[in-house]
Specification:
Number of strands: 0
Structural class: mainly alpha
Order of helices and strands: HH
Helix content: over 70%
Radius of gyration: 16 Å
Shape: rod-shaped
Number of helices: 2
Oligomer: single chain
């Protein structure tokens, strides 16, 4: 969960810097790619997270 939130934060920071700074449009693109990858990772992880494996006693 912390990796998911960290990547969201990184994507936001890269997007803001890429949008605000002149000539750093590539950072905005990298931020969008990181955000899409992070949302995909989160969807896969949360979809599988419902099944708990129990150990045999």
């Amino acid at each position: 969960m912390s990796l998911f939130l960290f990547l969201i934060l990184v994507a936001l920071v890269l997007g803001i810097i890429g949008f605000a700074a002149q000539g750093l449009f590539y950072l905005l693109i990298i931020g969008v790619v990181v955000l899409i990858a992070d949302l995909t990772y989160g969807a896969v992880r949360f979809r599988r997270g419902g099944r708990k494996h129990r150990l045999a006693r």
